[in-house]
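Quick question, first post here. What does this chain look like in 3D?
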Amino acid sequence: TTDQKYIKLQDAMHSVQKGKLGEAEAVYRRDLKWHKNNGWSLFGLWKSLEKQGKINEADQTYQDFKKSWADSDITLTRSRI
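> Answer (accepted):
Ran it through. Tokens below.
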């Protein structure tokens, strides 16, 4: 359900904040399999990759995020408001 998806993305965001970057990366990647261009998940994946030092993957994910978020009228600072 939508509520379960929201909870999983919230858990991933908290995992990033707690330094559990591998866990967060896995949740974001799973969500992106179901929702290919989800800006929230792309943003979270970008941040988790960046913090893990996976610079090339992070750069590509950031480019994907920018494309998916191009028409948005809000700026993200984390993977969920």
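The mean pLDDT is 83.
The helical segments are 2-17, 21-34, 39-51, 55-68.
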